[in-house]
Amino acid sequence: MSVEIISKASLDFLKKLAKNNNREWFTTNKEAFKGHEADVKAFYNAVMQRLNQHDQIEKLKVFRIYRDVRFSKDKTPYKAHFAGFFSRMGLERRGGYYLRIKPGETFMAAGFWDPNKEDLMRIRKELELDASEFRAILEDSEFKKVWGMLQGDALKTAPKGFDKEHKDIDLIRHKQFIFTKIFTDKEVLSKDFINQVDHSFQAIRPYFDLMSSILTTNLNGESLIA
């Protein structure tokens, strides 16, 4: 099969796995799984090749199918999806790209899922000082057409040390700064899917460029990279 498409057979396998999420069924069908896994990994690598035409990717991580059930109430042993994360290369390139393939629930995401406390404070301080560039990107019509609204967990009130009446407190309260885009199964199975994925990832670059600038400088605009 082409490395640039997701096959219906792979989605069908994931549907069957969701209905038979146990070790006995998986062991019986492990060879079939390995085939679909190889096909999907080839697709992710094709996406990475596209990304490297307009960005620089340091690493692709395709996540294992096995679930860590030690601290979960859900004891099903397998993930009924494939997922991969593309890490950007270099200290000056911040943010990352995520893509999950799951029947009826495929989505892509980009941004900052779990910023460390130093990065989170730096972002908040920037937004407190001047959020105009940030808002300009979020409100750009072409950007919104692809990615919609800013998402992610946020505090219910102002973070410690910030004015709850600040005009940009809606942004400052955020703990995550992410965007997501959902795809139907029909879109996933189309020959154009890889183009849609690549186009969407290209569209996030103005956001990544701004956030990278923020996270690699201090409030005076001086570089923090040695």
Chart the SSEs and their pairings.
Elements: H1 8-19, H2 23-28, H3 30-51, E1 57-62, E2 82-88, E3 96-101, E4 106-112, H4 117-129, H5 132-138, H6 141-147, H7 169-172, E5 177-183, H8 185-189, H9 193-203, H10 205-215
Antiparallel strand pairs: 1-2, 2-3, 3-4, 4-5
Helix pairs in contact: 3-9
Notes on the structure:
By secondary structure, the protein is α+β, with helices and mostly antiparallel strands. It is built from 10 helices and 5 strands. It has one domain: BirA Bifunctional Protein, domain 2. The protein has a 5-stranded antiparallel β-sheet. It comes from Croceitalea marina. It holds the Pfam family DUF2461.
- Span between termini: 46 Å
User: Total helix count?
Assistant: 10
Structural class: alpha+beta
The low-pLDDT segments are none
Task: Note the run of SSEs as H and E.
Answer: HHHEEEEHHHHEHHH
Count of folded domains: 1
Q: Report the CATH architecture.
A: 2-Layer Sandwich
Question: What does the main sheet amount to?
Answer: 5 strands, antiparallel
Kindly provide the name of the CATH class: Alpha Beta
Helix content: 40-55%
- Under CATH, the topology can be stated as BirA Bifunctional Protein, domain 2
How large, in whole angstroms, is the Cα Rg? 20 Å
Percent strand equals: 5-15%
Q: Taking strands numbered 1, 2, ... along the chain, how are they ordered across the largest sheet?
A: 1-2-3-4-5
Count of DSSP strands: 5
Can you tell me the overall shape? globular
Mean pLDDT: 96
Protein name: DUF2461 domain-containing protein
InterPro entries: CHP02453, UCP028451
